Amino acid sequence: MKQFRLTKREATILKKQAEERKVSESVYLRLLLSQKPNDYPEIRQLLKELINEVNAIGNNINQITKNHNSMLYSESDRELLFAYMKKLNLQVKEVRTKIGN
């Protein structure tokens, strides 16, 4: 058992954040110490969405590559490839911003 002091402001923040996650303050503090992304449902959801987006873009890139290997590659394929890569980069940046790293 550890005892420590918090300011009123810190205690209020701790209480509010624990209540938002529907856990006790001690459980929330242990969660913060462990810093496991799997403990955060919102992070798991963001990563799941990102993985789905990467898979969809990967399929499109595979189709473009197949066209290229079949000598059917066109300028529109090139533009699509750049658009998919830009979309992927934006998705990754958005998730990194939301997660905080």
Model description:
By secondary structure, the chain is mainly α. It folds into two domains: 8-35; 38-99. Helix content is 76%, strand content 0%. It is built from four helices and no strands. The chain has helices at residues 8-20, 25-34, 41-69, 75-99. α1 (8-20) packs across α2 (25-34). The mean pLDDT is 82.
* Mean pLDDT over the full residue set: 82
Task: Please tell me how large the radius of gyration is.
Answer: 22 Å
* Uncertain spans: none
Number of helices: 4
Which outline best applies?
Answer: rod-shaped
Distance between the termini: 31 Å
Q: What's the domain count?
A: 2
Please give the structural blueprint.
Blueprint: H1 8-20, H2 25-34, H3 41-69, H4 75-99
Helix pairs in contact: 1-2, 3-4
